[in-house]
Amino acid sequence: MMVLLEQMRKDAGRNPGQHLHFNQVRSHSQRVRLAQILGSQRWLRGMCVVACKRHLPRNDLNDDQVYLYQLRMLLERLSWFGRTHQEKVNYTIGHIRNFRVEKLEEYESRLRGSHTQIDWAWLDEGGGKVNQPQRVQELQLADVFASSVGCAFNPDGFGNVETRYLEEVSGCLYRPDGKALTSYGLKIHPWNDATQQAYPWIKEL
């Protein structure tokens, strides 16, 4: 893991041990290179939940509500992954400004008492943790992965999106044999006619 990160830092023009943050890598070619390195790691499995806010049926949801609903769907997929491989999964999320760990604990507690598709038997009983990417370096890999996906959906200042990075990391997206990618490694919500028309290239991944 550390060897992989050091190679990525080197190719991104960073110093050894320096915090690797995708959005601080300005060169398109270096961003492509980071995505290529991740996508070539066949031992990695990535999952991403994308909230298409412009297409959500309700527009009165605040950022916390959208974020926590994404977390719920991610936990579902993490638990399925653990069940498939018969191994318990623990997870750590990167620190988000104004998002307290108590909020995570409260939401997990609510989920455990609700009807969901989360198979709790395959998630760590201790619950999720919140930490800084500088302290948990694996979160820097997660940042590169999530940002590569995000660039395909979030328009820049000119209204353009960049799908190349997602295409490069697609090799490590979690997709059980014969299953739809949009049900596992790239969960998009809502996944309806409007979003399918907005992102037709997803079928090519």
Description:
By secondary structure, the protein is mainly α. The chain contains seven helices and four strands; from the N terminus they run ααβαβαβααβα. It has helices at residues 2-11, 28-39, 63-85, 101-112, 138-150, 164-169, 193-198, and strands at 48-51, 92-94, 129-131, 186-189.
Characteristics of this structure?
single chain, 205 residues, mainly alpha, two-stranded parallel sheet, two-stranded parallel ribbon, 7 helices, 4 strands, 40% helix
Overall pLDDT score: 92
Question: What are the low-pLDDT stretches, counting only 5+ consecutive residues below 50?
Answer: none
**Which value, in Å, is the CA radius of gyration?**
17 Å
Number of strands: 4
Shape: globular
Main beta-sheet annotation: 2 strands, parallel
What is the ordering of alpha helices and beta strands? Answer: HHEHEHEHHEH
Strand content: 5-15%
Helix/strand/pairing category? mainly alpha
Q: Strand arrangement, largest sheet?
A: 1-4
Topology diagram in text:
Elements: H1 2-11, H2 28-39, E1 48-51, H3 63-85, E2 92-94, H4 101-112, E3 129-131, H5 138-150, H6 164-169, E4 186-189, H7 193-198
Helix pairs in contact: 2-5
Concise account of the structure shown:
With 205 residues, the protein is mainly α. It contains seven helices and four strands.
